[in-house]
Fold:
Amino acid sequence: MQVCPAGQGRSSTSSLLQALWTKGAGQAGQGGGTISFMPHDDHDHPHALLPPEPALRVKALETILTRKGLVDPAALDEIIDTYQNRIGPKNGAQVVAQAWSDPDFKSRLLDDATSVVADMGFYGRQGEHIVAVENTPELHNMVVCTLCSCYPWPLLGIPPGWYKSDAYRARTVREPRKVLAEFGVTLPEDTAVRVWDSTAEVRYLVLPMRPEGTEDLEVEQLARLVTRDSMIGTGLALAPEQST
Amino acid sequence: MSRVHDMGGRFGDGPVVPEPQGIPALGDWQARALALTLACGSLGQWNIDVSRHARERLSPKDYSRFSYFEKWISALADLLVETGVLTLEDLKGATSAEIHDLADRMLKAEAVTGVLAKGGPADRPSLKPIRFGVGDTVRTRHPGGSALVDGGHTRLPSYAVGATGRILSLHGAHVLPDSNAHRLGEAAEPLYAVVFSASELWSHPEHPNDEVVLDMWQSYLEPV
Structure:
């Protein structure tokens, strides 16, 4: 196993870095040698110079950038807190519940979702251009990004793992009904499926059909019926008895 | 001719595995990789198209075996070196502790909320004439791939190359990724939602009425 010459240990940070690289090389070697850490000057793919194990690779890069004053670890904590605790599918659910309750709101949402959801405070990176698409008995909408994993972050937060999976990206455009079946959704034969492949900076929000028996519910109660998947189009809104 | 990320329609990937509703919980290093990538965006050395292209340029072997955030962190390292922010020596661990020239651009914790809320809209004023109207029949460019750079970035997926569809709506003029990803200018042009019948795209469509909609820039389209 070759290990690149690390820093000269001028400071404690250097030693930390050296430890990361050495540890990374050691761990890779323990796997039976299938992933070998062989540093080389590969100008096309400099990332190969970092430790191969993902957690160490991230740690190494964060350490280098922090040391040079390019990254503030407290800012990273703040970003993580935003997407793990503050921004999530509850935002989108509020929009959907409001659309179910207020025909005028729904009409404005379908006409210009970007400004309507921005007025509710939902705007920002990966949600600069929003289009809402409405499910009806005749048409079921589903959203995918075959080329990467574009997703309406200000409305739905971090995408789930399956949305980013090769299987979802590859299959949804070709066989949406088989994918839906894997989510337990079977559509009536006369409902067409329209799949939206997010190839540009436009992000799509599916407006699921309002469940039956919800005429008397308030907006807050309705919002609890709106799942994340129903706003991607891989699920349906919950019936009141399914909601917890 | 295509790259590994361009996987729409591909066979053989197995089932999609659903997950609980709500906010997905990220693992520690995955969350760190996400945050590090977003924070480095504030250094102002690339745009979103350059960054997407960096992930797409991972070797097919790396792209396929890397998990999502491994792609992010590896492409980030590649970008930092390509843009001269870091050196190969830095990545080897032989890094100096000197404060970087770009340190004044470092994203500060108190600025995070504002930066994430601000976003980066892709629509631009444009004088390019709008060539198509809603309902027009159009065909996507054939052959596909980037018209500007051989092997370059494009948002025309292989499965939709040479396909005939219909203009569903006009989104306005948006930055052209094929140009912007290679720092050739934003080159904004009209962007349309174009609807294609599943039977136009696939030899064995699941249902005769199913459709796929793609957002297509005007230069991807020709009249039929």
Summary: The helical segments of chain B are 28-41, 48-56, 60-65, 68-82, 88-91, 112-118, 177-180, 198-201. Chain B touches chain A through 112 residues (CB under 8 Å). Chain B has a mean pLDDT of 96. The CA atoms of residues 180 and 186 of chain B lie 5 Å apart.
